[in-house]
Amino acid sequence: MDLEALDRLREAVVDDAHLRSQLLSARDRVGFIAKVVEIAQSRGFELSADEVSEALRDERRQRYERWV
Amino acid sequence: MTTTSPHLLAGWTPIQVGCRDGRPVVRWCFTEGIEFTDPFFHQTVEHCMKDLFRLLFWRETDIVALAHLAIASPGLDPAGFIFHTSRSGSTLVAQMFASLPSALVMSEPDPLDTVLRAQTAFAGVSDADTVDWLRWMVSALGQQRIAGQSRLVVKLDAWAILCWPAIRRAFPDTPCVFVYRDPTEVVLSQLGHRGFHMVPGTLPAASFGLSEVELSSLSPSQYCAAVLARLCEAALPAARDGSLMLIDYASLPHAVSDTVAPHFGFEVGPPELALFASVAERDAKNPVVPFVRGAANHTRDTPELRAIVDGRVGSVYAALEAIRESRS
After folding, report:
1. How far is B26 from B16, CA to CA, in rounded Å?
2. CB contact under 8 A, B53 and A23
3. Which residue is closest to A19 within chain B, CA to CA?
4. What is the pLDDT, as a whole number, of residue A21?
5. Contact between A14 and B59 using a beta-carbon 8 Å cutoff
6. How many domains are contained in chain A?
7. Is A23–B59 a contact, with Cβ atoms under 8 angstroms apart?
8. For residue B210, how many other CB atoms are within 10 A of its CB?
9. Is the bond leading into B290 cis (omega within 30 degrees of zero)?
10. Smallest Cβ distance to B57: which of A14, A29, A63?
11. Residue B47: CB atoms within 10 Å
């Protein structure tokens, strides 16, 4: 997974109320991932749906590990 | 890590303080529209994490970003801090305040705990740093969440009373209460389901005045009693000088409206009493079930256990009771 692309996308999204709103309104996981990929591509970041899905799994795993 | 302008942190809440290259970093979650009304801060954070945006799109800042935010947006005035022994009704007290439209309650927020214990987690953190970071973190946590909120109530973790001097230095004028209970009841509850601090090794043994050798020789009952004794001992000087109001479990829930709320500067009229009553009839930690007083597991209540608890906690508990009764 291209962590640098995800980090750069994260930096772009967290400060942009419009992008936040688009992503918060995604109805389900598939729609959310598709929206993330679309936003990434529109900004020139190479990020696939599989990579976004993997990033979500990693974040979830890190949350769980806090309680182990 | 770049410096984040305070205005970009509007709508974001610090949810964790971690370590990167030996330095503290603050993890923020987008919490606009989120009300922190769950019994515990971490429960609200976990609810946030069910949202994929909030899970994936966090931000990280250095700790100084908290200072910049505190200057630009100081947050709600802290009305009161709730200290406690755990298993003593403190969650009920916090939830009763959380029912008030004017109150924002932060209940055992993880990042505040990390800041309190920063001197053991990070190198080169001075007492003055701890005091500054405490003020900045409370300011960030105390940002108004919904319209009408004007006061902040913070319930700290049970072991936070060990850091009383730093907290008092950071907030010398904030009213504080210490909620406690018959120590045998507390230990019985802990033996049924241990809190974090009651598991040996989770916090440094020295925090509780124990050596590593003692730690390995204590039974579960002895360890719980030793920790409880240390918490009560830490509360005693502040209780004596009047800066820490003592609240006995047996006086709840009425002590919230009669004593704690006025101490924290809240006006209590019929609307507030009705809200308090609706909370008090439910289990504070699990509001879907009714509250049952004294639900500790009494199958472990033996003369031996009582002797252990009395031997370690009896005298300090009696001292707290004497102070409380002398002021009632």
Report:
1. 6
2. yes
3. B53
4. 94
5. yes
6. 1
7. no
8. 19
9. no
10. A14
11. 12
pLDDT digits (tens, 9 = 90+) for A16-50: 999 999 999 998 999 999 999 999 999 999 899 99
pLDDT tens per residue, range B86-128? 999 999 999 999 999 999 999 999 999 999 999 988 889 999 9
A60–B59 CB contact, under 8 Å: no
Report chain B residues whose CB lies below 8 A from the CB of A10. 56-59
Distance from CA of B59 to the nearest CA of A (A): 7
Contact A26 B53 (CB under 8 A): yes
A60 at B interface, C-beta within 8 A: yes
CATH code: domain B74-102+150-327 is 3.40.50.300
Residue with the two structure tokens 């302008």: B5
The complex scores an ipTM of: 0.95
Domain boundaries, chain B: 74-102+150-327
**Structural domain for A43, as ranges:** 3-65
Ramachandran area for residue A53 (φ above 0: left; ψ -120 to 50: alpha; else beta): alpha
